[in-house]
Write a structure and sequence with these properties.
By secondary structure, this protein is an alpha+beta fold. The chain has one domain: 3-Layer(bba) Sandwich (Chalcone isomerase), CATH 3.50.70. It is built from 7 helices and 6 strands. Strand 1 and strand 2 form a beta hairpin. 31% of the residues are buried.
Length: 182
């Protein structure tokens, strides 16, 4: 997928995300350049961050931006990768985590196909940012719009990988939900 120039991305955002004056996206996202740097999203503030390790190896560093309730949209989660990982492996791991948290197989098949279109191969230094909106999720790769999955249940299940009390990474969840000092 070719990255759009910043003006075209901003136009796409305004057309797609701000359809309703009361849309959470309209209230939380002013323009795509702000999306590329979630720490400056209006209404959202940086919460916690932490490292995800597998077998002792650092896989990624995660940072959460949210409003007063970090478990409710809108929120943004940025994963800064520290290893090269195939997009297909990211999809497989995401499906496995959502399955463990109770997602139905039919949904997982549909969502797996959608994630395959959105999640690229990553290398050390790349970042993926997911933005959980009330109507689904938007994904950025290294600050450029990568795609969206317009399904609220997908978004809820996907972000539960990190935020659900039953996550397979409870230490990372605790680090992400650590309320920053006022």
């Amino acid at each position: 997928m070719r990255a759009l120039p910043i003006t075209a991305r901003a136009k796409l955002v305004s057309q797609r995300f701000y359809a309703s004056p009361f849309s959470p996206c309209r209230l939380a996202l002013v323009c795509l350049p702000a999306v590329a740097a979630p720490d400056v999203l209006p209404g959202l503030r940086r919460w916690g961050s932490g490292d995800f390790r597998r077998f002792g190896f650092l896989v990624y560093h995660a940072t959460l931006w949210a409003g007063e309730d970090p478990s409710m949209p809108p929120l943004a989660l940025r994963l800064e990768y520290r290893r090269s990982i195939a997009g297909s492996a990211i999809v497989e791991a995401s499906v496995a985590e959502m399955r463990q948290l109770g997602a139905a197989d039919g949904d997982l098949q549909r969502w797996g196909k959608a994630m395959t279109r959105v999640f690229p191969d990553v290398r050390d230094g790349d970042n993926l940012t997911g933005i959980h909106r009330a109507d689904g999720a938007v994904f950025l790769f290294n600050g450029s719009l990568r795609g969206e999955i317009a399904d609220p249940e997908f978004a809820r299940r996907f972000f539960a990988i990190w935020l659900d009390p039953q996550t397979s990474a409870p230490a990372l969840r605790a680090a992400l939900l650590r309320r920053p000092p006022a």
